[in-house]
Amino acid sequence: MCKTVLITGASRGIGAAAALAFGRAGWNVGVNYCRSEAQAQAVGKAVDAAGGTACLCPGDVSDPAQAAALVERTVDRFGALDALVCNAGVALPQMLLTDVTDGMWRELFAADVDGVFYTVRAALPPMVHQKSGAIVTVSSMWGQVGGSCEVAYSAAKGAVIAFTKALAKEVAPSGIRANCVCPGVILTDMNAHLSPDDLEALRLETPLETLGRPEDVAETIRFLCSPQSAFITGQVMGVNGGLVI
Ligand code: NAP
Fold it and tell me: 116-143: b or e for each residue (b if 16 or more CB lie within 10 Å)?
């Protein structure tokens, strides 16, 4: 029987690549988007063409009712929820902590931390009911080690790591696994502001001397939702070319 995954922030970047990876594996995919409707429609078509079945799920994960509606829409459409990928996220421009305003901090935490909480909370009842499920959260290497001029983002992504570890302990008796993926520098819109010189410097700083592609992270996410990772839970997996070891 087809398995079902809901991926938040699947209209672009890592989430879009993850949707396609699951589609190629024949999964039903709830494709969440917030603002990028046209891109999400293209992702949905690509998932269908790849052999999966897509269901577009509009909604802002930082709103508890909208986050819950994503889960409800996916379960209504496909009849189950086998996996949840909490990928939606935003970053602030690099800046000193003293320049971060209250509003910037709140918006960042609303999308990157509250969004994970609201979506996971809504996804747990169907997973507990079926006594199985896989949850993957997307943090960042900055959540592991902290980055200068990235204090707020590091704090938010560090919260996602701690959330996932605690969650894994809490839900394991219900047959649910929870793991966290920490990307390094991945070529998506989130890094579009970096100059060619900045990107080249980051590439040379990376032990594998290459920058990451969304597909690199997508395949790790798919693995962590597959039966091949059945004995893996509570883990924090870097996908960073060795930039953080
Ligand atoms: P991206 O290309 O900027 O895409 C971000 C995605 O998140 C979009 O689909 C966007 O949807 C969605 N999103 C943002 N806020 C949302 C909200 N409130 N509700 C629902 N969806 C929302 O970013 P990316 O590089 O793929 O990043 C994906 C995840 O990886 C993020 O959590 C990010 O922090 C993390 N990450 C990325 C990198 C990197 O180098 N790229 C490194 C470490 C970690 P709409 O466009 O539809 O609004």
Answer: bbbbbebbbebbeeeebbbbbbbbbbbb
